[in-house]
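User: Here's a structure from my thesis project, written as structure tokens. My advisor, Dr. K., wants to see whether a designed sequence matches the one we expressed. Can you design one independently, without my sequence as a hint?
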């Protein structure tokens, strides 16, 4: 199945059927129409991400669920004659034409009509007929119609269009309510002069230009003005706890409220922001020094982090180990902010017995080749016969160890034998011999087991990458969670961990568009489910500044200016509070009125190793419920890019594809 068809199927399943659209003909129509044909080239990669998208002419491509819901409420059936008042993008008419017997559209603007018809032709939809005329007056000479669709919102339903409904005909339209909220309304013709109107609830449309995302929210005042006393920005200002300078001990002390947790997860809104690294370092220092935390686990590959762990715990380097973090994106961990924390951790551990030291580990499943070498090297030392067997099994993956994404592509080919069972068997046997192997060197066994787990899960990840973004994402975050749990178990019941990862990993995915529409989970969600209140999820955010990033995969690092946050985002609420740097406690019982006001979903920005300011709304924003996603939120109004360390990047394909997070 071609990749676009697979993405379209996924879109229909999770963004439409999963939300309550059950009409089989509508679902099939959505699977048939190539959504990307309605988009400009720069936005086609987002065609199946489940969002309303902008078109060159100021029109928008509707969310697939919105189109499906209009058709379902209109009761479109085979053989129906359908009128669409206003052609819009053409997408709604295209989907309707896959079901109805005839679709007529009326559009007064010639340029808009030509653009829409060009999109319809590109999509191969030839069954939509377009007429010139006033959309609000319809086509009286062509009626009556079984269904009339009005995609643009208005204050009232046009009477001339009602007159063009056949008996039992249905008209569906989004109508503005008294607070300018959008309600979906259906009118059925019940007689010659009798119409039955039904309010179907919230339309699910993105508000038109000028309408605030939260209906009834006071609009922001002039720049520099104090927000209204009852506004969300003012409630944030009142609840915000000002943060001291990053190098002051009082900064970390503000996070003592989370000292009783077993796991504290610290996020970041981008991978290239200095303040996020420095803040996480300050919080982690406090948790280690004052509260007994003894594990630092980061969003990095186990083999790379293992080299740093040996350094911070004053252990000799592994024979033949290459310097860590030499692959794209090198600046993510090879930066001066991270180097300062690593040297502090080494100093903290100096002179302490091994059982009282804090260790440093990677949770992620990249750097497949180094993990294979580490497992084989360990088995060579403790069980040469097992090493020989493992070499045969890993031989299946060896040709792809440097570019493992090629393995995933080939694993789709008919008859190509995947390596799944072989690598899983090696991990099972390693764990079965745990007691025997660990007697010699428990730390080395922990390292070997983690690498074997990485190889097993990486095989599944690279195979799944070519089936489903959600499946590969879930495999990756499940692997990170399993590795974290293995660390805690190995260190004993008193072990406590600090996790550093992107907001998209540590915020509870079930409270975001990731989980709701794409069926994605993450380590934050898994930690909440497993540890309950003993897991603390702390997100980070910024309004603007600079960030270290790349234009595309495997391209050089650049420093870019971060766009000011969108008016309909959580970040803009934080910015409008006027508080430049603060901690916001979002837990139940803390600032309850603010928490309740923040619960409805808004947009939140996520910048990974790639930053595309020109398509930021579609490539970097997602809908979330901030108080349900995080237990606390750390805010820096303006931030700066990390300072990368000099390095020669190792050649090879990027390993953060397709997420970059």
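Assistant: Designed independently from the structure alone:
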């Amino acid at each position: 199945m071609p990749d676009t068809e697979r993405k379209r199927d996924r879109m229909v399943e999770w963004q439409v059927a999963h939300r309550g659209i059950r009409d089989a003909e509508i679902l099939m129509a959505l699977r048939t129409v190539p959504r990307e044909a309605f988009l400009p080239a720069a936005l086609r990669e987002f065609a199946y991400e489940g969002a309303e998208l902008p078109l060159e002419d100021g029109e928008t491509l509707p969310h697939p669920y919105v189109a499906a819901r209009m058709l379902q409420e209109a009761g479109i059936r085979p053989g129906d004659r359908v009128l669409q008042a206003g052609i819009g993008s053409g997408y709604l008419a295209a989907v309707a034409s896959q079901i109805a017997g005839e679709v007529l559209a009326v559009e007064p603007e010639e340029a808009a009509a030509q653009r829409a018809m060009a999109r319809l032709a590109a999509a191969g939809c030839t069954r939509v007929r377009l007429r010139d005329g006033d959309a609000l007056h319809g086509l009286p000479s062509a009626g009556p119609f079984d269904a009339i669709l009005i995609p643009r919102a208005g204050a009232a339903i046009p009477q001339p269009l009602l007159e063009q409904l056949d008996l039992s005909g249905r008209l569906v339209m989004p109508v503005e309510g008294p607070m300018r909220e959008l309600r979906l309304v259906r009118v059925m013709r019940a007689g010659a002069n009798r119409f039955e109107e039904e309010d179907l609830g919230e339309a699910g449309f993105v508000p038109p230009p000028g309408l605030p995302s939260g209906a009834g929210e006071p609009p922001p005042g002039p720049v520099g003005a104090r927000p209204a006393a009852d506004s969300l920005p003012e409630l944030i200002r009142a609840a915000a706890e000002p943060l001291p300078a990053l190098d002051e001990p009082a900064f970390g002390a503000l996070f003592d409220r989370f000292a009783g947790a077993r796991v504290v997860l610290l996020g970041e809104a981008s991978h290239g922001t200095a303040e996020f690294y420095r803040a996480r370092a300050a919080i982690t220092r406090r948790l280690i020094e004052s509260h007994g935390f003894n594990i630092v686990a980061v969003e990095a590959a186990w083999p790379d982090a293992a080299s740093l762990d040996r350094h911070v715990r004053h252990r000799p380097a592994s024979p033949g180990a290459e310097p860590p973090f030499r692959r794209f994106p090198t600046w993510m961990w090879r930066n001066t902010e991270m180097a300062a924390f690593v040297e502090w951790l080494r100093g903290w551990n100096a002179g302490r017995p091994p059982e009282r030291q804090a260790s440093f580990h990677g949770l992620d499943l990249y750097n497949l080749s180094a993990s294979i070498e580490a497992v084989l090297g360990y088995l060579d030392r403790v069980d040469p016969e097992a090493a020989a067997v493992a070499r045969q099994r890993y031989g299946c993956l060896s040709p792809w160890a440097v570019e493992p994404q090629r393995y995933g592509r080939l694993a789709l080919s008919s008859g190509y034998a995947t390596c799944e069972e072989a690598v899983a068997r090696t991990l099972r046997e390693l764990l079965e011999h745990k007691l025997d192997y660990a007697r010699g060197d428990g730390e080395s066994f922990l390292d070997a087991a983690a690498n074997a787990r990485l190889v097993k899960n990486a095989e599944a990840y690279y195979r799944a990458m070519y089936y489903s973004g959600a499946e590969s994402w879930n495999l990756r975050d499940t692997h990170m969670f399993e590795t974290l749990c293995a660390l805690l178990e190995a260190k004993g019941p008193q072990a406590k961990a600090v996790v550093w990862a992107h907001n998209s990993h540590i915020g509870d995915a079930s409270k975001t568009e990731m989980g709701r529409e794409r069926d994605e989970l993450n380590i934050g969600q898994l930690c909440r489910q497993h540890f309950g209140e003993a897991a603390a999820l702390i997100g980070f955010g910024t309004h603007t500044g600079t960030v270290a990033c790349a234009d595309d995969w495997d391209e050089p690092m650049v420093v870019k200016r971060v766009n000011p946050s969108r008016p309909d985002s959580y970040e803009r609420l934080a910015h409008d509070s006027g508080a430049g740097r603060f901690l916001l406690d979002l837990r139940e019982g803390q600032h309850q009125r603010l928490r309740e006001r923040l619960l409805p979903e808004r947009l939140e920005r996520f910048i990974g190793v790639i930053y595309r300011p020109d398509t930021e709304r579609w490539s970097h924003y997602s809908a979330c419920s901030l108080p349900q996603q995080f237990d606390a939120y750390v805010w820096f109004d303006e931030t700066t890019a990390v300072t990368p360390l000099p390095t020669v990047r190792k050649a090879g394909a990027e390993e953060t594809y397709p997420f970059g997070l």
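When you compare it with your expressed construct, this may help: DSSP finds 25 helices and 20 strands in the chain.
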